Amino acid sequence: MSGPLLEVAGLNVTFPGRGGETRAVRDVSFTLGRERLGIVGESGSGKSTTGRALLGLLPASAKVTAGALRFDGLNLLSRSDADWQALRGKRISMVMQDPKYSLNPVRNVGWQIEEAYRLHRRCTRAEARAKALAMLEAVQIREPDLVYQLFPHQLSGGMGQRVMIAMMLIAEPDLLIADEPTSALDVTVQNEVLRVLDKLVEERGMGLIFISHNLTVVSSFCDRVLVMYGGKIMEECAAKSLGAAKHPYTRALIQSAPQLERRQAELATVQRDPAWLT
């Protein structure tokens, strides 16, 4: 494939309200190859809304416009419901932030992973089960036969997140959008999940959009970073150069994060400039 896997130009998302429209995403533009792209910013900056817009998961009340929104040459703005059903899961998948709200509480996890595969691939039940067990192994879950039978409430946070990753990757999509996949996990489990994602991206040659508020994780894990504030992209830079970012908002985010090597009585706060939203 030549050219970018994903092309976004002038993406805008607005929601109606009593006081008028709320602009949740403002003129967002970027491209994505088969790489790891981080999107960072504080809560409400438009990170998750951008991800959901790419997958057509926003409510009907949302108004989505763009100059271009293309995935592997397909115009995402003109997709019908049937088109989206064929595209979601099979070619583009999204790992939601908290698995306990995304997994069906009355079905065991093996059945749910199998269902994701059967929806997009012609196969027998035995083939789907074998694939589900293989995916549980791929995300480094020990005793996949045992975990296959468990229900969501029986999983730890890290295991639940890995089950969600297995479910979203079982159909072998070309693009994975991971929305805060490590935010509720302790550092050890967080590192395990990141290793799983890194290995799968490398082996499968996927594109990955990694949405997070953790600048440290993004700078060490991703290839490029988009910094969002108020629905806009303030800055784009190489992940390894995030510490040398130039935009005042990015600098403020970096300075407001606690650092072990520097003792502070109080953390710095972000001083906002209205000009950032113009």
Which key phrases capture this entry?
alpha/beta, 278 residues, Rossmann fold, 22% strand
Strand-helix topology:
Layout: E1 6-15, E2 22-32, E3 36-40, H1 47-54, E4 63-65, E5 68-71, E6 74-75, H2 81-87, E7 92-95, H3 109-118, H4 125-138, H5 144-148, H6 157-169, E8 175-179, H7 187-204, E9 207-211, H8 215-221, E10 224-229, E11 232-238, H9 248-256
Could you describe the 3D structure shown?
With 278 residues, the chain is of the alpha/beta class. It folds into two domains: 6-91 and 174-277, P-loop containing nucleotide triphosphate hydrolases (Rossmann fold), CATH 3.40.50; 98-172, no CATH class. The protein has helices spanning 47-54, 81-87, 109-118, 125-138, 144-148, 157-169, 187-204, 215-221, 248-256; strands at residues 6-15, 22-32, 36-40, 63-65, 68-71, 74-75, 92-95, 175-179, 207-211, 224-229, 232-238. It has a six-stranded mixed beta sheet, with helices on both faces. Strands 1, 2, 4, 5 and 6 form a five-stranded antiparallel beta sheet that branches.
